[in-house]
Specification:
- By secondary structure, the chain is of the alpha+beta class.
- The protein has 3 domains: 4-62, Nucleic acid-binding proteins (OB fold (Dihydrolipoamide Acetyltransferase, E2P), Beta Barrel), CATH 2.40.50; 66-135, Orthogonal Bundle (DNA polymerase, domain 1), CATH 1.10.150.20; 152-203, no CATH class.
- Helices cover 45% and strands 20% of the residues.
- It is built from 9 helices and 5 strands; from the N terminus they run E-E-E-E-E-H-H-H-H-H-H-H-H-H.
- It has helices spanning 65-75, 82-91, 94-102, 106-109, 117-127, 131-135, 152-167, 172-183, 190-203, and strands spanning 4-12, 16-21, 24-30, 43-53, 56-62.
- The chain has a 5-stranded mixed β-barrel.
- A hairpin with a 2-residue loop joins strand 2 (16-21) and strand 3.
- It starts with a strand and ends with a helix.
- Keywords: Cytoplasm, DNA damage, DNA recombination, DNA repair, DNA-binding, Hydrolase.
- Belongs to the RuvA family.
- Residues 149-204 are annotated as: Domain III.
Length: 204
């Protein structure tokens, strides 16, 4: 098993990153490759899951070990493959997902791409009671700073807006300062969140 790859981040595209290590370019598929945008051309360490089947071998990559662990747990659920697991990780955080499983929140779970009621029930059946201990999550909290619940669509829109602002040259500190205000926005349209974020930057 390849636990992680450490090397130069050479390429980022819509689905994957390529990391060059010891003269070899490793293609690593990620839920959101652009989370590594600010590290292109630099040394990175990406945690990897080496997916092996008779007809394929693929590396899936993660910025945090907890995301890798959740990915591996999702693969154990009947009806969920690597693409489905990545789609879930691309639209929610680990804490939110674990809370949804423990609360049997089918509405939240079926909002993920390709997840219907049958798959949602299967996830609850296979994972409930097994995740809080491993992720050190004791109680549920999927609420924002103003008390509203974030949908997977809202979470993804905020993440996409943040990555867009990073690509425009704003620093992590600048973006971190305005993120709470973005979370208070009622809509989940990425373009609107980007415009709001840029307006907030201009006020600083």
């Amino acid at each position: 098993m390849i636990a992680y790859i450490k090397g130069n981040l050479a390429v980022i595209n819509e689905h994957a990153v390529i990391v060059e290590a010891n003269g070899v370019g490793y293609e690593i598929f990620c839920a959101n490759p652009f989370v590594f945008q600010d590290q292109i051309g630099e040394q990175v360490q990406i945690y990897t899951y080496h997916y092996v089947r008779e007809d394929t071998q693929v590396l899936y990559g993660f910025k945090k070990t907890e995301n890798k662990l959740l990915f591996s747990k999702l693969l154990n659920v009947s009806g969920i493959g690597p693409k489905g697991a990545l789609a879930i990780l691309a639209t929610t955080g680990v804490n939110d997902f674990v809370v949804a499983i423990e609360e049997e929140d089918e509405k939240f779970l079926t909002s993920f791409p390709g997840v219907g009621k049958k798959t949602a029930r299967q996830m609850i059946l296979d994972l409930k009671g097994k995740l809080p201990f491993e992720f050190d999550i004791a109680s549920g909290d999927r609420t924002s700073t103003n008390g509203t619940t974030h949908s997977p669509e809202k979470i993804k829109a905020i993440d996409d807006a943040i990555e867009a602002m990073k690509s425009l040259g704003y620093s992590d500190r600048e973006i971190r300062d305005i993120t709470p205000m973005l979370k208070k926005e009622e809509h989940d349209n990425t373009d609107e969140l980007i415009r709001k974020g840029l307006a907030l930057m201009m006020q600083k």
